[in-house]
Amino acid sequence: MLEICLEGLPSQVEEAVIKQWFSEEGDAVRKGDDLVELETPQGNITIQASSDGILAEACFDEGESVGQGEVLCVIDDQENSLDDSAFEE
Q: HEC profile for 7-28?
């Protein structure tokens, strides 16, 4: 399991608001796919998947605030849980 944390906010910004999830729990994601869009006072930020896997858990709902360093979501990146059919639409 891979935890995706909120990192890299602009200086003097300590939290962001979840604007939109691009995938739902249980969806297959590929490395580089957009996962979530966050809103900050200085503009929007998009967090991307850092690994192929399944979005196992979204830790916050749209509209909720998340602080710097908090876990946004969990990706199940175990090789045995993935096969090409997980990425087919």
A: CCCCCCCCEEEEEEECCCCCCE
Q: Considering the chain, what percentage of its residues have pLDDT values greater than 90?
A: 72
Query: What is the predicted pLDDT for the residue at 80?
Result: 52
pLDDT in tens, 37-68: 999 998 999 999 999 999 999 999 999 999 99
Instruction: Please report, for the domain that includes residue 11, its CATH number.
Output: 2.40.50.100
Q: State which H helix or E strand residue 37 sits in.
A: strand 34-40
Establish if 47 belongs to a structural domain.
yes
